[in-house]
Specification:
Elements lengths: L20 E7 L10 E6 L2 E6 L5 E4 L7 E7 L6 E6 L6 E5 L22 E4 H4 L43 E4 L2 E2 L18 E7 L14 E6 L8 E6 L3 E11 L2 E10 L1 H4 L6 E16 L4 E16 L9 H6 L3 E18 L2 E18 L2 E21 L2 E18 L13 H5 L3 E20 L2 E12 L4 E15 L2 E12 L18 E15 L2 E19 L8 E18 L5 E15 L7 E2 L6 E12 L2 E10 L3 E2 L2 E6 L4 E6 L5 E2 L3 E13 L4 E10 L6 E6 L6 E5 L3 E10 L1
Parallel strand pairs: 1-7, 9-12
Antiparallel strand pairs: 1-4, 2-3, 2-5, 5-6, 8-11, 9-10, 11-12, 13-14, 13-41, 14-15, 15-16, 16-17, 17-18, 18-19, 19-20, 20-21, 21-22, 22-23, 23-24, 24-25, 25-26, 26-27, 27-28, 28-29, 29-30, 29-31, 31-32, 32-37, 33-36, 34-35, 37-38, 38-41, 39-40
Length: 733
């Protein structure tokens, strides 16, 4: 963190007695104690200095006859504070410091000294005030460079399509254990309470050997360790969600965290013309930390659930009879995950082992037709870091996952338009099967340091029992600092991913599928342009063979599992503030292309998440004490889609969808403006924050997806809300 930028002091003082002079230094927004703060007391005859202890406390003995002193408090990353204090005092004084970047301003950083050639980080303190998050910072992952921009509240909202890869080719981890999804339906919110979030790391491509079974990207979410010294808590209410959290010490070596949230829009109105059941979601998280120092264990229980009902077509095109007789889609999903992570620190060694148990359910139906998918999985992950010398470090580990899947479906026809939500009903094939699989990998990577550079060759062995396939994955990364202000980094490697259990199904898939194999390269350069500004340039490319995709409807109306080749390339430019100051600004421009084809003889066509350009800009400004305002703007190409036509089936007296040229049409260019303003009221033991957010999407940029008339002769776009305001309050102790 940079030196002093903005600060505020709250002093509770009155005259009762003289010495000693006691006080505590805490962070303004969270109330967290600030250990190791430098405290200077100046009198008419000289000065004394000290530092705060682990609980942020300090003490001076004031000489007799001194009527007032000048206190100066400083800490890296906070503004130095200087105040006159009249003596004697009635109670210990309380000093609150404001961080250099107010809690919530986003600074996206690609750390040069990482095992990964490309890594973008979001942490709790950097994102809570950024516009467009609706007080949910994990939503900002979709604004990071390389992540496809999708319209809010559309079926693709919340989809993680990273650097041209399909969403199913990326994986999401919470505290080292894979979870099935990161966002509630249509990106209303993430599944993690922001106050229990420590950081989110995005590895967009060409990542290190630690991660495997993915040819796309990796999202790693880390929850926050509870404060072992004091109680924290808060409530938050806005027009979308309501929730609460608490963190508290139980004893010296045990602390716990609890959170729960629920949507509230359905409590105001439970349906509209399109939705028969308004989207409802909930989530919870509990964490207990045991032990301190060189040995500790963290146990986390997390869960989330969603449900909604909607008509499969655009109700604006329905005739009066259809409005009465049209069936509605009912969909529900949920997951629960239990994790236990143990850490051991020794001289030159760091060991971490994580165990996980995950339960997932996806079910729903339309009319009398339904599908159900359940999965129970146990996982193990381990990493050891060993320092051999100043120039050599070893990292090695492994991971495994044992899963059982139960799939059932009872379709009467192929509902191809529901492929993204209920794929077994979209396939139109009855299903009743159980599947078991074991997958995992072992890896190792030495890191050699030489002067201003380092190089890390690595090897991962990845295998899977369901497909009976395994693959070696050699990788190498490196970085070099030419000067403190100019550096380069790069990585090249091979990555593989086993087909999903659904794709390997003997009923609806192809048991003979091979591993998807991807060769990837990533290059980057970082420049410090001025004292407070940075510029990063990233180039990437990937070529994937045997990429598996499920087409919800082929020419006969049956589901089809297809093998494709895929390729993607792009350039990402990011400029951002380097030092956290009263203001923040970040902008990124991504130019890219993503394509796929069936075989060597087929032409390349656009990928589902091809986005030739995407521009993101975000800024935040503390324009007055306790006031903050922010602006975010996004502009991106519309996503491609395959147009549909219809043919009449006399046997069933229905119109069936017939796909046109693949991804030959594109939605309109998407753009969106987000505004945020908030006011904080700081009291001695708690803080109240009121905030107002709003977004605006121009009319011509407001298309979420296409819908068709009953005979597919007419199509129209379903538009999202053009303006959405959000008023909320947040109170924290």
């Amino acid at each position: 963190m940079g030196p002093s930028v903005a600060a505020m002091v709250v002093w509770g003082l009155s005259v009762v007695q003289a010495r000693p002079l006691d006080g505590v230094v805490v962070e303004r927004e969270t109330g967290d104690p600030l250990p190791d703060s430098a405290v200077k007391m100046t009198t008419g005859s000289g000065f004394e200095t000290t530092r705060t202890d682990g609980h942020g406390r300090f003490r001076f003995e004031v000489p007799e006859g001194v009527a007032s002193v000048v206190m100066t408090i400083s800490l890296e990353g906070y503004m130095s504070v200087q105040e006159a204090v009249d003596l004697p005092i009635e109670a210990p004084i309380r000093v609150t410091l404001q961080p250099a970047v107010s809690s919530g301003e986003i600074v996206v950083e690609a750390e040069r000294r990482s095992d990964h050639a490309a890594r973008h980080m979001l942490d709790r303190e950097r994102v809570e005030r950024t516009p467009g998050t609706f007080d949910d910072p994990i939503r900002l992952v979709q604004s990071l460079p390389g992540v496809a921009v999708t319209p809010e509240y559309s079926p693709s909202a919340g989809v993680l399509a990273i650097r041209g890869a399909a969403p199913g080719e990326s994986r999401v981890f919470l505290d080292g254990v894979e979870i099935p999804y990161l966002y509630h339906f249509q990106n209303y919110a993430s599944v993690i309470h922001s106050r229990l979030l420590e950081e989110v790391a995005l590895y967009p491509s060409a990542f290190a050997s630690e991660w495997g079974d993915a040819v796309g990207g990796i999202v790693a979410v880390t929850t926050r360790r509870p404060d072992p010294a004091r109680v924290h808590g808060g409530v938050n209410v806005n027009a979308i969600t309501s929730g609460a959290y608490v963190q508290a010490p139980v004893r010296d070596d045990v602390a716990v965290s609890l959170s729960a949230r629920r949507s509230i829009a359905d409590l105001i109105g439970d349906s509209n013309d399109q939705y028969t059941v308004w989207p409802v979601f909930w989530d919870y998280l509990s964490r207990a930390d045991l032990g301190r120092g060189d040995r500790s264990v963290a146990v986390t229980l997390v869960g989330a659930g969603d449900r909604y009902g909607r008509y499969p077509g655009d109700t604006a095109t329905y005739d009066p009879l259809q409005r009465v007789t049209a069936p509605d889609l009912q969909l529900a999903r949920s997951f629960h995950a239990l994790t236990a992570a143990g850490t051991i620190l020794q001289d030159g060694q760091h060991h971490r082992t994580t165990l996980g148990l995950t339960m997932e359910r996806l079910g729903g139906g339309i009319g009398t037709e339904s599908q159900e998918r359940r999965e129970l999985a146990a996982s193990l992950r381990h990493r050891s870091d060993l320092v051999s010398s100043d120039t050599l470090r070893w990292s090695l580990g492994g991971d495994g996952r044992l899963a059982g899947i139960r799939r059932q479906a009872s379709p009467e026809r192929a509902w191809t338009e529901l492929g993204d939500e209920l794929p077994m009903l979209a396939a139109g094939i009855p299903v009743d099967e159980s599947i078991q699989r074991l997958s995992g990998g072992l890896w190792g990577a030495p890191q050699f340091a030489f002067g201003a550079g380092r190089v890390e060759p690595g090897l991962r062995i990845q295998g899977d029992t369901l497909s009976s396939l395994w693959a070696p994955e050699p990788r190498i990364s490196g970085a070099y600092d030419f000067t403190p202000a100019h550096s380069v980094r790069g990585s090249v490697g091979r990555y593989s991913q086993a087909p999903t259990a659904d794709a390997l199904s003997a009923t609806t898939g192809r048991p003979d599928l091979s591993l998807a194999v991807s060769d990837q390269v990533a290059l980057g350069a970082d420049f410090i342009l001025a004292e407070a500004w940075e510029l990063s340039v990233d180039l990437y490319g990937r070529n994937t063979v045997n990429a598996v995709e499920v087409d919800p409807g082929d020419a006969q109306g049956l589901g089809a599992v297809r093998v494709r080749d895929a390729r993607a390339a792009g350039v990402e430019l990011v400029t951002r503030t380097r030092r956290k100051t009263h203001y923040f600004f970040m902008a990124s421009l991504v130019l890219s292309r993503a394509q796929r084809r069936i075989d060597d003889q087929s032409p390349w066509v656009l990928g589902d998440h091809d986005q030739p350009f995407a521009f993101n800009m975000a800024g935040s400004w503390d324009f007055a004490p306790d006031w903050n305002a922010g602006l975010r703007y996004r502009l991106a190409s519309g996503l491609p889609f395959t147009p549909l036509s219809g043919s009449y089936d006399g046997d069933t007296d229905t119109w069936l969808a017939r796909p046109g040229p693949e991804n030959s049409a594109r939605l309109p260019t998407y753009q969106k403006v987000d505004l945020h303003i908030e006011r904080a009221w700081v009291f001695p033991t708690w803080t109240l924050v009121g905030y107002l957010e709003g977004w605006w999407v121009p009319r011509r940029s407001n298309a979420m997806y296409m819908v068709y008339s009953y005979d597919y002769t007419e199509r129209s776009t379903v538009a999202g809300p053009p303006f959405v305001p959000l008023l909320g309050m947040r109170a924290e102790i």
